[in-house]
Amino acid sequence: MRRDLCDGVGIARLLNATLVLPKFEVAAYWNESSGFADVFDVDYFIQKMSGFINVVKELPKDIASVEPFRVDCSKRKGQFDYIESVLPSLLEHHYISFTPAMSQRRDRYPQYAKATLCQACYSALRLTSSLEKKATGLLDAIPKPFLSLHLRFEPDMVAYSQCEYTSLSRSSVAAIEAARVDRKPWTGELAQIWRKRGKCPLTPNETVLMLQSLNIPTNTNIYLAAGDGLMEMEGFTSVYTNVYTKSALLNQEDFTRMHGNTKAALDYYVSINSDAYVATYFGNMDKIVAAMRTYKQMHNTLFLNRKAFAEITSQGLEGAELKNALWEVHKNDFAIGRGFALPDCFCEFEL
């Protein structure tokens, strides 16, 4: 949601349009409804964007009851031009609702649009005062120094990946099957090809092996930046025993009242302020955290290489030989503290 918001701001500047504070379509993630103001400081955002684009909280009365003309750019690929493709609709209908393209070359934006997008991403978005108070309290409660680990092994994540795993508990298998719906797992040779492409989330046990190959001590303080429903955690916590979660550190009554996106905001806040950040996947959370950590010159950021893990384990390596092979894959990124897939950052100018 944060990524799409930043994209929306940059596109509004390209089109010289006024931006209406967006409504988050969170049902796809957490089956709930909450808005921009539940997470971000609205007045601060509007103030910080002044001079870049005009932002309004509500629609003018004369069009408030009108349905916007919808423009879906999510499937557009290649050198997609918003001015050529979207501006005519905006000029004709005056009020449009659009979905940004999934793949964009933001580095090709004119400098004024880059500046606007970067102002939104890195300067204008801050949490509401109440949420930031919870976030700072959570950060203070974690023993220092600590590593923030973004671990993805929830039933819906595994089901979506279409990967198949052996040696999972019956409860995990049942949870995955319940989440699959019509996304059946790949089998046979296709399953191996899919795994070797790096498409399969690392299990907690595989993550332990990866961390040990990097010689990360088992007494390291680890904050688990993850959603509800992580599976197969017993093996992980039996090796890395100093594991902390927001559900354990926050007031339980307060925690249960929080929306999914506000919980994710806490993970984001902790992760951009942690001593180190390690991700087992490379999703939207990881991309935006890595970019912010780079912006803040906090380069202890690493993405575990799932593709290399699948290739190496398929060779039958075990024990010290396997750990040495995994170390060879990650040692350069680990030494300089920057992940192999760190996104390009073009926000190099003063904001």
UniProtKB/TrEMBL annotation:
Organism of provenance: Raphanus sativus (Radish)
Q: What is its main location?
A: membrane
Q: What family is reported?
A: Belongs to the glycosyltransferase GT106 family.
Signal peptide stretch: none
Gene name linked to the record:
LOC108813806
**Which pathway?**
Glycan metabolism
Q: Does the keyword Transmembrane apply?
A: yes
* Annotated InterPro entries: FucosylTrfase_pln, GDP-Fuc_O-FucTrfase
Instruction: Please identify the protein, giving its name as recorded.
Output: O-fucosyltransferase family protein
